[in-house]
Design a protein that fits this description.
The structure is a homodimer. By secondary structure, the first copy, chain A, is an alpha/beta fold. Chain A is 52% helix and 14% strand. Chains A, B: GO terms for molecular function: phosphatidylcholine lysophospholipase activity.
Chain lengths: 194, 194
């Protein structure tokens, strides 16, 4: 199976000394899964919308099933010139286009954004997380909510604060991977055949 | 620093239960390196030539240096309808275009292709490895030759034979990563600043 992961720096695994991120950790030991990690640092959902399909198409083959996982929202919530880089309504429009477009390719799953250190960004990301969860429910796309568990644990943000203010280290990424891989929706997502 | 890795399944890390491949293993512990692993299984140098620049451009930023590593050749050497998927002259033409094009973006390094189980493919890959080494010398692109060490060790091909005939497991990928990361050209490549 080919697993394509689209999203921002947390998907790419920025700051992980093991270069796995939560995605690589969530499929540890599964040799039969070929991972294409297509996370890009600082990318917004608007930028992702412009490139995901071309990159997915180049990695699709007719002889092996594909799965697509998305995780974004933090970069949209950052301020630029006093306003979020992408407004909530626009993020939701982008998310709808991404998810429905990807569903035409393959089974799709969304993992919600993690918390970040900056309180303003974090509050906007939390609101976006709830809105993305509701959108996914309407589209019948499985959604794995990691925001509250990561924030409550404190490890994620403590590691981020000790590094660059945004990205955790190995333990934080492992915690996010554990939340994802223990979720029944993830198990259905990567266990199933075509 | 952003490290972009372009190539085929060995770059992508097919069969590695740890989902690192040799690239992830070669930068283990280096948190400051953001890895963009853009290997695609079965891809030839002709297909890579058509897509590398668009994908590199989307991952380039003006505030952080970039490095580009290439590794290809095995898929070109596979037979299709009785002839190699890409003829040697064409591979070299593609390689020249890839390397000179990428040098306009960032410092570039090439890692030669590893051996494969099929004797015919392996012999053609070995010849291609020598030709790519010579081309890189002419272009002054550092080239790390892993073919003979991996073949002589036997581990790479033993692991491949025990899996899918082409791809090793964790130990094989680690051996290739060790060859790469111990090479002075690799250390210069990832140590340097802009």
């Amino acid at each position: 199976m080919r697993l394509i992961a689209f999203g921002e720096s947390f998907v790419q695994g920025a700051g992980d000394p093991d270069h796995l991120g939560w995605v690589g950790r969530a499929i540890s030991g599964r040799r039969e899964i070929s991972l294409y990690n297509l996370g890009i640092r600082r990318e917004t959902s608007t930028q992702l919308l412009a490139r995901w399909e071309g990159e997915a198409r180049l990695r699709r083959v007719d002889y092996e099933p594909m799965r697509i996982v998305f995780s974004f929202g933090c970069n949209d919530s950052h301020l630029e010139d006093g306003a979020p880089r992408v407004a909530v309504a626009e993020t939701l429009k982008n998310a709808r286009a991404l998810l429905t477009g990807a569903l035409a390719f393959a089974p799709v799953l969304m993992v919600g954004p993690p918390p970040v250190a900056d309180p303003g960004v974090c509050a906007r990301t939390e609101a976006l997380n709830a809105a993305l969860l509701a959108l996914c429910a309407r589209l019948q796309v499985p959604f794995i909510d990691v925001f509250q568990p990561l924030e409550a644990g404190g490890l994620w943000q403590a590691e981020a604060a000790a590094w660059d203010g945004a990205h955790p280290g190995a333990a934080g990424y492992q915690q996010m991977a554990d939340l994802v891989s223990a979720h029944p929706a993830w198990r259905r997502f990567i266990e199933g055949g075509e």
